[in-house]
Every structure is written in structure tokens, then in C-alpha cells.
Amino acid sequence: MDLSRHLRHFLVVAEELHFGHAAEVLGIAQPPLSQSIQRLERELGAELFDRSRRQIELTAAGRLLVGEARRFLAGEERLRTMMRQAGEGELGTLRVGVPPEIPAVALHALLRRVTEDTPGLHLELQELTVPEQLRRLASAQLDAGLVHHPVDAPGLLYGPVVKIPLGVVLPRTSPLAVVRPEPGARRPGSRPWEIELADLTGHDLVVFPRETFPAWYDHLLDVCRTKGFSPVRLRHARNPEFLLGLVLAGHGVAFEQEAMARREPRVIWRPLAGDPLQRGICVAWPERSAHPAATRFAVLAAEVLARHGTAGTPPPALGVAPSTEPRPWSIVYAP
Asked: Which of 68, 85, 110, 188 is deepest in the core (most CB within 10 A)?
């Protein structure tokens, strides 16, 4: 029995109190409408209309059913709307893996952007390395993940790739951290605080282990060698804080985005001339049984990362007075 259809018929008849007029409103013949009301009465076990007079009247059961029928149909409509929104990725929970090095400003912007775009969608973020994300995506423990590109993993779909230029992270006491004043020491059109990869000759390199991301690891070292930098020693760090600690201790330099270097005020970030190292990042999600919000989230994440993934302020150009805004490390590094 299509209870909703019969209840809609009942409400029109209850409003018109005339089967002929109700049939016209519904756009059906009167006999099928009468049969629909009779079937509803049999189903509910109560007479809904008093037909003993010239004009029909609602019975006590019928008057009670009017309010209940309206609530029932409104609830059904809410249910259908909710399921449609869930099917289109506008409701529910999206489980997303995020690598540890994603800047806090980018995460904040991403959460805010998703809330503005789809307020009914809840992001459940999990801090995971890319290999851990790939394992959980394969076992359906994650709905999507922010992964470094390219990724050699079957059964995944990928959103737009954002290229994030990497610079070099140095201790503030390093001679390379000083802005070079001699115009002849720079190539034409370069920024005064840029560093050539060849300038790093003689330094160790702090880098993530190869098994974390083999393709990017090999590419990074190939670019370094091509540009004249062959690290004396490779030191591996999985955690961003450990990486910054090694750099601060003078155990090497590292290649990261500027926002990550801001976590430690005693290190400094300098861009690389020509931006030879650009790390790609994108959203990946399973091809089979994909979460309906995954595609939309991939586009939003790319927009946010393109805007906030490299956020930072370069040092002042030569001849420009430094900012008078107090720095958090002014006690340690007094003017």
C-alpha cells in the first residue's frame, strides 16, 4: 500500500469536504479517489468521513488524522531531502587523511571553506603520512586523502594538482641567511634573498626517508645534483619537528615550504632561485564506492592550497626599513 499517496488524497478530501471537488483538485476521476479513501479506512481500521448527510463530514478519527497525516508527509519529505543531500555529498562525514607538514593556516582555511560551501558536511581529519593514507584508502578506512603527487597506487581517482614551490630552511645564524647586498652576486631579475642550490655545497641535507615517497625523494636528489648540490650526508627525519630540530642544531639544511619553517623562530626560510623544487599535492579517493563529497572536496582543497599553501612574507628588500611589529623571538634575537 502506498500510504503517502492515500494520505495525500485524504487531506485534499478533508479540505474540500466534497469528493467531486477533491477529484478535480487532484486531477483524477472520482471513483478511484473514493476507492483510495476506502482502502485507507480499511488499512487504519477507522471511518474517516461521515457520509450519512448531504455534505460529508470528518469523523473524530478523521479530525485526528489530519494533523498526523501532515506531520507524516512532512517527515517523509524531510527524509527524502536528507537522503538526496547525503547522496550528493552535502550531508554526513568525510574522513580525510592529512600529511603532517600541511601548514596550520591551510588547514584552518580548508575547514572554513568546506563549512561555508557545504555546512551539513563534517570533515573528520586524520594526521597520516602518505603511505598510511594509501593503505587506509585501499581498505576503505578513509574517504579521501591529501597526498603528494605523483602517486603510483591503483584504484584511486585524483583531483587538481597544486604545485607548491619549496625553499631552503636554514639556521638564522647561517651565512646564507643574510641578504646578499652585492648586485653583482645575483643573476639579473632575481630576488636579493634567493639562494642557488649550488650555494648549499658542503652542507648535509635533512630529508624524509625514501620509503615515505620514493618518486619525490629520487626527483629531489636528481634536481640537487643537476643544479650543483651534492649533499655531504643525508639525514632522515619523518616528523617536521625533528626536521626543524636537526636544522637548528646545524646538522644540515632542508627543503620545505615557508609556512612549515615558521614553526621554529630560530630557523629562516629562503626561496630557491628559479623554483627548481615544486612539490605537487592533490586529493585522492577510491574509484570504487567513492564518497559523494570526494570530488567537490578535491576542488575546494585545490583552491585553498593554491591560495594558502605557500603563504608567507619575504624579508625586506635592500634599503627598506624592517617592520616595527614585535617579533616573538625578539628576546632571543634582540636588535
From this structure: 110
